[in-house]
Amino acid sequence: MTDPAPEAPDAIAPIPGLGRRTARGAVVTLGGQAVRMTIQIGGVVVLAHLLSPHDYGLLAMVLTVVGIGDLFRDFGLSSAAIQATTLSRHQRDNLFWLNTAIGAVLTLATFLAAPLLADLYDEPDLVGIARVLSFTFLLNGLATQYRAGLTRHMQFAKLAAIDIAGPAVALAAAVLLALNGVGYEALVVQQLTTAAVLLAGAVVLGRWLPGLPRRDVPMRGLLKFGWNLLGTQLVGYASNNVDSLTIGVRFGSVSLGLYNRAFSLLMQPLTQLRAPSTTVALPVLSRLRGDTVRFGEFVRRGQLALAYTLVAGLSLVIAAAEPLTQILLGPQWTGVIPLIRFLAAAGMFQTLAYVGYWVYLATGLTGVLLRYTLVSAAIRITCVVVGSTWGVVGVAAGYAVAPMLAWPLSLWWLSRHTPVPLGALLTGALRTIAAFGACAGVGWYASTLVDGRWTALLTAVGASLAFFGLVWLAVPVIRRDVREVVEVVALARSGRGAKTVPTAA
């Protein structure tokens, strides 16, 4: 919750047809991210044939360390602005200048500290890479509150347009440079171009000019929310990136390049697909937090939607990892096959636990989230460090084991502090893991019985889908789950139906 503001408050108010608008927003947002994911994967495929693992390893070394700064740049203030019950014009102005100032400081600090980063990895080329990428902090700092404003007012189509344009323009620039013989510099230009285009789009579509900062505006509530969320994100970032840092320091740029391609091919698109669900869920749950029944039902259905889309897709990746890698990346990247399988398994459990992140933000319990994140981070760091004893594949295995151990703990902790239906979330997640895990196993086994990349791919996918069809016919609760997800999609497409978020049957 934020401090009350007397001047022209922008309040979260009930929206007529919230369920319909939410469903439409989800479809628009996920559709936009699907296009962005296609661009992401297309970029991985095209650039993997033009650049080397060493080039990607260099970029990954910088992004792993410099990425910490981007969390400070946001400072949790974008989410603070989105979830605030009221947000005055002057509060928003102050948030803009705070994010911009933090971005400018981080740009200067990274520029000056670039030699230290190069010394850490013993790679002199990292100096120039880090100094160029440091300017993304300033660009992203300027864009932060523009994007938060669009999200707060549920203008999902505009956000989707921005998020498609940035990566598309940046990929075109990177491919053009790579075709002309430019190496890792093409990847650096891609990162900088993305930030610049996202800023330009947010400013144009945001239609807002910030005023000068003011000291007499109540900011304590917003800053407290942001500080707690920042702590959570820092801990989460450290645990999420201990794998790349460990590989870069222990095994070098080529090994890190292989791991980075596996991560970029799978986990980055997955993150891009999951993140919009927060964009849709946060403003809705912020409006429903006074209604326990509808709040819990939204969370339950949200988990089902993630399970029957993203988790289902990850099971297909596990089944077809070998032919997918051979087709998309080529022979020099065969080392990523086992990495992709382990990362996909990790992604399944991360996705099922993701609804908890919505709830913590919507209810303002960032302190509670921070305490849980400390525990889950300790689990992940331990698993990754122990796994590194067996090389890069061991790191990926440790990364997969960690969310398997932390997932049930996350739901239990969530239920202690928020009004979520623990039993429904646990049983729903377990049955989807069982169903799609079995589909992955059947698809993988079927693919080993045939020859040829494309034949193996089609066999893996076909066998997985056929097996799920049998599960759907045999298990009534699976049919009910699928029907509920389909109803949400139909509501969004038709524009008819319930005027509010549905309650439990």
TrEMBL record:
It comes from the Bacteria. Its main location: membrane. It is a multi-pass membrane protein. The chain crosses the membrane at residues 56-73, 94-114, 126-144, 156-179, 191-210, 304-321, 333-357, 369-390, 396-415, 422-446, 452-475. InterPro entries: Poly_Biosynth_Transport (IPR050833). It is found in: Cell membrane. Keywords: Cell membrane, Membrane, Transmembrane, Transmembrane helix. GO terms for cellular component: plasma membrane. It holds the Pfam family Polysacc_synt_3. CDD domains: MATE_tuaB_like. Belongs to the polysaccharide synthase family. This is Lipopolysaccharide biosynthesis protein.
